[in-house]
Structures are given as C-alpha cells and as structure tokens.
Amino acid sequence: MEMYQHDSANTFRFVLKGDLAKIEAQQLQCAWETAKSILNGKDIIIDVSGVTKADPAAVELLARIRESGAQITAARVPECEGLLPLLEQPPAMPRGPGRRRRWVLRLLKAFVS
C-alpha cells in the first residue's frame, strides 16, 4: 500500500493506493492517531479510490475512523467493493425545471408559518 498525506489550512488528507491488509491498516492507524493529535480541529479526509483490496480489519478500522468524524471519500469508485458502504456520497438530486424555485418556496413557507 502507498499512503500519501496532504496537509492544508483546513484539512488533512490521506490518499491510499493498493492493498490494505492488516499490516497496512496498522500503519494507517498509527498515521491517523498522529494526525489527530496535531490537527487542532482540521477535517480529516481519507481518499480510498486507489484501494484495490481491503481485508476485514482494514474495513473495520476505516469504519472506526469514520465514526470518529473523519470523511471517507473516493475521487472514483474504488475497486474494493467492501469500501463502498463507507463512502459518504450525497444522494443524487434530480434536476429539473422549477426544482430550485420549489425549494425556495418551501423554505419561505417554513419561516412564515
């Protein structure tokens, strides 16, 4: 597994590539624990789009990381299907004429009522 770490003003991002087995999951856990201790409120994002395989221990670790507040994302759909439930992708919103206007009307009704 390859793990890249990117630090910016508001976020700390991990980009994972390759197989994520037990040993690599332990390395990720150590890196995550270190990052948590020094981030002072920055968001943690883990991009798993490059992960080809993940064993159950790795999936469990990613689930725990997500439960702690980190975001699990993918720039593209990962090859490893076991990671799909962890991804935080908003549901697709249908786009059609007048959709935006209806949303604004519902919001106004909520404030007027």
Structure, briefly:
The protein has 113 residues and is α/β, with parallel strands linked by helices. Helices cover 38% and strands 27% of the residues.
List keywords for this structure.
single chain; 113 residues; alpha/beta; Transcription Regulator spoIIAA; four-stranded mixed β-sheet; 3 helices; 4 strands
Kindly describe this structure:
The structure is a single chain. By secondary structure, the chain is of the alpha/beta class. It contains three helices and four strands, in the order ββαβαβα. The chain has helices spanning 22-38, 56-67, 99-112, and strands at 2-7, 11-20, 43-54, 71-73. Strands 1-2-3-4 form a four-stranded mixed β-sheet. Strand 2 (11-20), helix 1 and strand 3 form a beta-alpha-beta unit. Helix 1 (22-38) runs parallel beside helix 2.
